[in-house]
Write a structure and sequence with these properties.
The protein is mainly α and 372 residues long. It folds into two domains: 2-44 and 180-371, no CATH class; 52-158, abc type-2 transporter like fold. Helix content is 66%, strand content 4%. The protein has a four-stranded mixed beta sheet with strand order 2-1-3-4, with helices on one face. The longest helix is centred in the middle third of the chain and has 32 residues, at 174-205. The two termini are 23 Å apart.
């Protein structure tokens, strides 16, 4: 037993040293947990920092209240301009939106009339124009309703007031979500690629046959590749989590790092076993690459990292319960977003362990058959 552990340790150390000498794979690891996360975070399509100006011809309490309602992070600080400046400033591209409050706006509103508020939109800025127009409409409607209630003298109108506050990510920045989901996707990609390529490389170089004539078993060979690649990916992922996500992007993380690391270890156990299985099904690196693409794409797209599983067909949801990516996305969102503890996450941990054990058993059987 002790000798078997020594063999697994020494073989795993050999895998790590061999990986360190592979400049291309090392560059892929560094890129995946640095630049790739930053690019995914900056690629957010959130509506934010829209340039807006106001033409206030009413100069009333209501128009001032409506102007003050356009707040960051949705809008930049409001600038007051004159009506004659609308065409010139929008042609110059200074503002995406210009809102015009007409004369007697407050008077007409309190008289229960329906005055028109003009919203000029620069539709050439497609990423902001249509979404921003909807936000402006909601803000104006909400503020006018509040103003009428506050000045109507009806105390019953304010008997109940619903205020929604977001505990995590209060401004609903999509970049926070994108960065962590990119981290989870890159963990899956590298775990499968590194483990599969380690086995394929040894087969192509002929060193696998040398190992088989030594006093080591297929189990020891497979276990060494799994623990070594798990260690490499875990160290790289945690480094990216702290240095890139937490420090550089300044995204707050709500839960326990140790609990997240435990979930990542179970996840990597399942994916490295899957990497061994795919390598046993391949004859060379090109075939392995094609298989990885066919496996990774549905795992990432249907795991819930991009689209909530509740919006998918029911049969897809049931099938994806057997995929490790589904449960790791739940672990990432539960721990890092919501601050969940072990009491809430242990059923997901158990499912992930059972999936990993099943993939390990399946891969070990396939590996023994391939080297027989």
């Amino acid at each position: 037993m002790i000798q078997a552990i020594k063999n697994i340790f020494q073989l795993g150390k050999k895998e790590i040293l061999s990986l360190c000498r592979d400049g291309l794979l090392m560059a892929l690891i560094v890129y995946s947990f640095t630049a790739a996360i930053i690019v995914a975070s900056n690629a957010s399509t959130d509506f934010a920092d829209a340039a807006i100006a106001v033409v206030d011809e009413d100069q009333s309490q209501l128009s001032q209240r409506l102007s003050d309602a356009f707040q960051p992070p949705l809008f930049l600080p409001v600038e007051i301009i004159q009506r004659n400046d609308i065409d010139r400033t929008m042609d110059e591209g200074r503002y995406t939106f210009v809102v015009v409050f007409p004369v007697d706006l407050e008077k007409d509103v309190m008289a229960h009339m329906t005055p028109d508020i003009q919203v000029n939109v620069d539709a050439t800025r497609m990423s902001q124009a249509f979404t921003g127009a909807g936000y402006i409409q909601q803000i104006l409607f909400s503020e006018v309703q509040k103003f009428v209630k506050d000045n109507s003298g009806d105390s019953s109108a304010a008997a109940a007031n619903i205020v929604i506050r977001n505990r995590y990510n209060p401004n609903l920045y999509g970049s926070w979500f994108n960065a962590l989901m990119q981290l989870a996707n890159n963990i899956a990609m590298l775990a499968i690629i590194l483990t599969g390529s380690a086995l394929i490389t040894e087969r192509e170089k002929g060193t696998l046959e040398h190992l088989l004539v030594m006093p080591v078993t297929p189990f020891q060979i497979m276990a060494s590749k799994i623990w070594s690649m798990m260690l490499v990916v875990m160290v790289a992922a945690l480094t990216g989590l702290f240095l890139v996500v937490r420090m550089y992007l300044q995204i707050p993380l709500a839960g326990s790092y140790m609990l997240f690391s435990l979930g990542m270890a179970l996840y990597l156990f399942a994916l490295t076993s899957l990497g061994i299985f795919l390598a046993c099904m391949s004859q060379n690196m090109p075939q392995l690459g094609l298989l990885i693409i066919l496996v990774l794409m549905p795992l990432d797209m249907l795991s819930g990292s991009s689209t909530p599983q509740e919006s998918m067909p029911e049969w897809v949801q049931k099938v994806m319960q057997f995929a490790p990516t589904t449960h790791f996305v739940n672990i990432t969102q539960g721990i890092l977003f919501r601050g969940a503890g072990l009491r809430a996450m242990w059923p997901t941990f158990l499912k992930l362990f059972l999936i990993g054990a099943g993939l390990f058993t399946l891969s070990l059987g396939r590996f023994r058959k391939s080297v027989a």
